[in-house]
Amino acid sequence: MSTEEKPAAAPRSLAEALRGRDDAALAALLRSRPDLITPVPTDLTQLATRAGTRASVVRALERLDRFTLQTAQALAVAGEPASYEELLGLMAGDDGDPVIAAALPRALGVLREQALVWGGDDRLRLVRTARELLSPSPQHPSPTGLGPTVREATAGMSPGRIQELVATAGLASTHDSVSAVTALSALFSDPERMSALLDEAPAESVAVLERLVWGPPYGQVTADPAARLRWLLDRGLLLPTAPGTVVLPREVALRLRAGRAHRAPEPSPPPVEAAATHRPQVVDATAAGQAYTALATVEELLKDWHEGGPAVLRAGGLSVRDLKRTAVALDTSEPLAAFWVELAYAAGLLASDGEADERYAATPAYDEWLEEPAAGRWARLAGAWLAATRTAGLVGGRDAKDRTLSALGPGLDRSAAPEVRHRVLTLLAGLPEGAAPSAESVLARLRWERPPRDGDALRARIARWTLTEAEMLGVTGRGALSAQGRALIGAPPARRTQAAPEGPGDKLPVHHRPAPPAHALSPAERGAAGAAAARLLAPLLPEPLDHVLLQADLTAVAPGPLERPLADMLGVLADVESKGGATVYRFTPGSVRRALDAGRAASDLHAFLAAHSRTPVPQPLAYLIDDVARRHGHLRVGAASAYVRCDDDAVLSEILADRRAAGLGLRRLAPTVLAARADPAGLLEGLRAMGFAPAAESAEGDVLIARADAHRTPPRTPPAPVPDGPPVPDDTLLTAALRAIRAGDLASTAPRKPSGGEGPGGELPRTSAAETLATMQAAVLTGEALWIGYVNAEGGASQRVIAPVRVEGGFVTAYDHTADEVRTYPLHRITGVAELADDGG
């Protein structure tokens, strides 16, 4: 600023303070509080008004770190306005803690940036709504533990009683209560005089003050207080607020606290400590193994639901019984089964089919997913988990109406989940490579960054679930963030350091290198992060095999993951007997019949096994296939309600004579045809349970081929995450919004020449149509800007600053400073016009 320039006057309101900010500072405000830009304010006065609303202020306070929130709480108990020195004293105390003194400018800068505090260092003001929320009151005690000031506590006290307090405290009497209260406050705020007064206090009275000093500041007394309480009451060190209730005045508490507003200020975030360290190669390999297991688990789940999964409850979701069955099928616990089901749902791989008898099934996207490389499939699952707001850990809990929360059901969305997951992984990314953190240090860091409200532990629960789920997915390995996990969150690659030995490590402080939050990444950036993670994971996954080892006991051993066509065919032809490093398949008459039902001939099965076995096809397996094939389709079942036909009438006689067939309601219609009361599907199952191998046939007599993967839902989109408030605006939106706000502010604050045509309060000009037309035509000739009132087609009124270019046909074409573009306005919608004042006016 040049020596001729005068210093800017102190702002008198938040709107004036915002008006003094440059575009970068306003953009920072709108990024930190995106609710202020939804919708875009018309000018800075409206922006300031919106920034002071209760909902917006509560949202902003909830997103402050602990020390910044403590700073706001200290300002709420300071004078109005407060100086920086007063605030520093409340935070650092009389001794002046240098750590707090060094951290305070950053915290105050955050409050200013978010428009929670305005004014210079000599006149700091907390916005009124924030002061109301954070100031002490009997109904809402302050987190500082401080009570009301002497002036507030004595507001309803009689003048005579106030004069008694002044006299007992050793002060000169005054002529009015206001000066008496001022003298009493000055006494309690004076360190030397306060120390002298407390030196006279009995030890029992001092003990009472020590119990109240850090809050809560309220206590109960009887109608005849004890001597230790009477001494304090007589001197105003305790003041009555209601019958039987006393309070410790704020000035007294601050003197006893050595000036501190908080018992334990926390200027620095607690470090995230490493509980153990591993070699990075071990971490990545372990995570890759978990990633492969995750893919296999999701495939097994959806393969189990190929022909239609569990029914959808009337209220939505899986029943408890179906979740238990799914857990048994996956050989896992019910909470983990709920996680895998929700993960597949979040990735768009399963959904309800929408039929009358609604059931869950795989979606068409599942078939596309199966065709992708393994690393790409994992990246899709991990990306869906990272961005999902559905929280599987809540399954089995209760909602606000005490209803059980079910897997795939409503009520599982928690908008904070994506942010917490990303933040936990970012904290892991800040540790030395291969370091696994202790869960408690991660939770402590999250509590400092976002203090919980009223005992709300949801964020802590989500953080714990994140550590567990990331390990199951292969984002972490042995508790440490893997290379593919680091790429997934967009964190920079870690520098390779000297490998640490296996086992417990020293406590290592985190070096925080924040990555951009997941919700701030564009879809293209998220896709690029997923592709980068897949590239890092791909070399670590085992190569799929094209062969198995057939054994004489009717089993096949797959020594590793199989290629997709081989795995699919083997899954139809045999049953999985055990899993692990190698998968064991068991051939049974039922599994072979399943392959024949799918349209395979015996010769196809022999050729398939011979082509994919590293060992000769055992004779027992060849005999099994031939024996089942010889009997397959010998019986035919169709719809009558149902019927059975067979060229061998002796077989039908054998069925009729079997007591197990009694429930099928069979009767002979002809030597080779039996009719049944059971439906075709029930008849098929009944005959197979009796040891026969019937085949279903169509009305034309052709054998029906049963496909194992026949049932799919219609195309479905994955569930959309529930946003945690308005999204952070991008640069394009910010630029347009700032331009509109600045232009609108110019229109609302531009100086205008005095005119009798202004409306009430000077809000909109009001002139006749002839005056409006004449002023517009004159402005076209002189090139001057005008201030107009305008009502759009929806009836919305606004004020604008325009420079008319042309007036014709009932329209004015002008450069609109508010919109920063040339526009055309109908003259009949302009309420009035006024000239702008000269610059020197």
UniProtKB/TrEMBL annotation:
Superkingdom classification of source: Bacteria
GO molecular function, one term: helicase activity
UniProt keyword Repressor, yes or no: no
Stretches assigned to the WYL domain: 771-833
Keyword ATP-binding attributed: yes
UniProt entry keywords in alphabetical sequence: ATP-binding, Helicase, Hydrolase, Nucleotide-binding
InterPro entries: WYL_dom, XPB/Ssl2_N
Domain Helicase XPB/Ssl2 N-terminal: from-to ranges: 548-670
Annotated segments matching region Disordered: 134-154, 491-526, 745-766
Pfam families membership: Helicase_C_3, WYL
Entry protein name: Helicase C-terminal domain-containing protein
